[in-house]
Amino acid sequence: MIKLVAALSLAALVAGCSGVDPNSPAGKRHAAYEKVGAANKALGKVFEAPTPDLAAAAEPIATLKAQAAVLPSLFPAGSGPESGQKTEALPAIWSDPAGFSTAMNNFTGAVAKLDAAHAAGDLAATKAAAADLGKTCKACHTKYRKKD
Length: 148
Fold this sequence. Notes:
- Keywords: Electron transport, Heme, Iron, Metal-binding, Transport.
- GO terms for molecular function: electron transfer activity; heme binding; iron ion binding.
- Heme c binds at residues 137, 140-141.
- It contains 6 helices and no strands.
- It is mainly α.
C-alpha cells in the first residue's frame, strides 16, 4: 500500500510538472499511452517468466482493450503541436488522417487479436499476438511520434 501511494504521488508530481493540462487532448493522450506502455511492459514480464502464467496477462490485456477503445478519439483537430501543449504527436497525424486511421485500426485490431488469443487460453498465440501488437506500436511511432 505504501508503494502504491508513493507511486501515485510521484505520478501526480510528474504530471504536474509536465506542462500539459491533464484534461486536454494532449494530456489525455499522454495518460492513455502511459497506460499502454505499462501494460505492454507487464505483458513482457509475463512472457519472459520461466513458466509464463497466462492468467497474469488478463489485467494488462484489459488495460490495452480499454485504451484501444478511447485512443482514436483523443486526436481532435487543433490538438497537435499547434495547440501550444507539449506533445510527442507529430503533425503527420492531422496531415495524413487516412494513414493515421489505418495505424490506429491496426493497433485496435492487434489488441482484439491479443484478447481473443488470451480468452482461448492459448499461451503461444497470446505471446505471438503480443509481439504483433508491439509491431503495430512501432509502426505508428515511426511515422506519427517524435523521436526521443
